[in-house]
Design brief:
single chain, binds nicotinamide-adenine-dinucleotide, Rossmann fold, alpha/beta, 15% strand
Length: 468
């Protein structure tokens, strides 16, 4: 078994002890229900290349199953199963009514042209259709490492070609471009969710005091590993909306540091132009890209891949808070060590759940065949406008133009998505923290998150009548 899957299962076992549930029921929750391993040929230049790929559906206690598709050279069955497993718990924690799934294609996207990637994505989708591993009510993929809205549009188009008569076909995949049945705010969702998680976690004075920090995000220093979809949005939103100072950043090509802070928007423009973050004005080069993980900072955001903090470097980690934006960035051993040291760890299955939350909103939008806000926006505007008029009439005073606009403007889709996401992340955090505060034997957020997930999933199994 791989380190990653072993870590996920170790964390599960640690939490399961606190639930008092039947052993067989716990075993059913833990195991992966089905894995489809496939190999298919794709023409690359003049050659035929055999591609290895997977789709794992970890749990069918709720349907459809849901989880991203990863393009990475390191993809293997254990990794896909570990990621699908995390998806099950993640959905339960944020009350998204799906089972967990994950897909993986063993390629490095950098090695292929756009057309070749399109062929691979379409062929992979065909394999999933053939085996009934995709569909609005069966299994709904989304973006993950190495994939984005472009790949999701190819998946949708392939699905539509085969299942065109299905009125709900657009709900077969999420993370699509907004103009192709997508939803506003999906691209930023995981990073924005990490930001909301951090904002909530840092708002408790008692918890921050234990870390010798003040409450609130403003002024806290942050180091970020990986400036992809998740890392970039976490960093830029934390900087712009939270007042966080980003002092170190790592990407594929290396790591940079500046105690005065790094402007993420400017850095991204620089990288687009130069093809690298290295040499960004006002920053120093760090020896190795891994050094970003051991920078002296308040918040560390690993947002690249799993197994980044292990027994080899855990003792050098200085951050007081680690927000697991990536899936499984800490091994179970490293996590135990850092918890003992007093580090606060926001576990992946809660911290990066913003993506699946907004994917759920997108799926609902596709099934309702209408954009959020379309029915009520103007109605709300008129209602609040009348109220402001009444207040003005009764008081004889006039409300300023800006204030009037603020009070009377109806919500657009993006406002509703962000509000729904913030509500989800806050509610889930309160739930997890509540479990930890009530049960003295639970001393970390990951165990509390697992307990929350296991309890919800077990009650589903019990009400389904499978376990008398
Ligand atoms: P991505 O491909 O958009 O970005 C990952 C970035 O990390 C890339 O820019 C890559 O160059 C960089 N990177 C890779 N190895 C690195 C290293 N050793 N040091 C520094 N940078 C490195 O992927 P993503 O979608 O942002 O996913 C990142 C992580 O977040 C994964 O673990 C994924 O499973 C998890 N996640 C993603 C989503 C989502 O909605 N995309 C949702 C939940 C969790």
């Amino acid at each position: 078994m791989s380190n990653f899957l072993e870590s996920v299962n170790q964390n599960f076992d640690k939490a399961a002890k606190h639930t008092g549930l039947n052993k067989g029921l716990l075993e059913q929750i833990k195991v992966c229900n089905s894995v489809y391993q496939m190999r298919f040929p794709v023409k690359v230049g003049k050659e035929y290349k055999v591609i290895e790929a997977y789709r794992a559906q970890h749990s069918h206690h709720r349907l459809p199953t849901k989880g991203g598709i990863r393009f990475s050279q390191k993809v293997n069955q254990d990794e896909v199963v570990a990621l699908a497993t995390l998806m099950t718990y993640k959905c339960a924690i944020v009350d998204v009514p799906f089972g967990g799934a994950k897909g993986g294609v063993m390629i490095s996207a950098r090695d292929f042209t756009e057309k070749e990637l399109e062929n691979i994505t379409r062929r992979y989708t065909m394999e999933l259709i053939r085996k009934n591993f995709i569909g609005p009510g069966t299994d709904v993929p989304a973006p993950d490492y190495g994939t984005g809205s472009r790949e999701m549009a190819w998946i949708l188009d392939t699905y539509l070609t085969m299942k065109g008569g299905d009125i709900d076909a657009a709900a077969c995949v999420t993370g699509k471009p907004v103009h192709q049945y997508g939803i506003q705010g999906r691209t930023e969702a995981t990073g924005r969710g990490v930001f909301y998680a951090l904002k909530e976690a840092c708002s408790y004075e008692d918890d921050m005091k234990e870390l010798k920090l003040t409450a609130g995000l403003k002024g806290k220093t942050m180091a970020v590993q990986g400036l992809g979809n998740v890392g970039y949005y976490t960093a830029t939103i934390s900087q712009k909306e939270g007042g966080v100072k980003i002092i170190a950043v790592a990407e594929y090509e290396g790591a940079i540091y500046s105690e005065n802070g790094i402007d993420i928007e400017k850095l991204m423009k620089y990288r687009k132009k130069k093809g690298s973050i290295m040499g960004f004005p006002g920053t120093k080069k760090m020896k190795s890209r891994k050094d970003v993980l051991t920078v002296d900072c308040d918040i560390l955001v690993p947002a690249a891949l799993e197994n980044q903090i292990t027994k080899d470097n855990m003792k050098k980690v200085k951050a007081k808070i680690i927000a697991e934006a990536a899936n499984g960035p800490l091994t179970a051993t490293a996590s135990e060590y850092l918890l003992k040291k007093g580090t606060m760890i926001l576990p992946d299955m809660y911290c990066n759940a913003g993506g699946v939350t907004v994917s759920y909103f997108e799926w609902l939008k596709n099934l309702s065949h209408m954009r959020f806000g379309r029915m009520e926006k103007r109605f709300d505007q008129a209602k609040y406008g009348n109220m402001v008029d009444l207040v003005e009439r009764l008081t004889g005073k006039t409300i300023g133009k800006k204030e009037r606009q603020l009070i009377t403007s109806g919500a657009d889709e993006i406002d509703l998505v962000r509000s729904g996401l913030e509500e989800t992340m806050i509610t889930a955090y309160k739930e997890i923290r509540g479990i930890m505060k009530r049960k003295k034997s639970i001393t970390d957020l990951r165990t509390a998150a697992f307990v929350s997930a296991i309890n919800k999933i077990s009650s589903d199994y019990l009400s389904l009548g499978i376990w008398p």
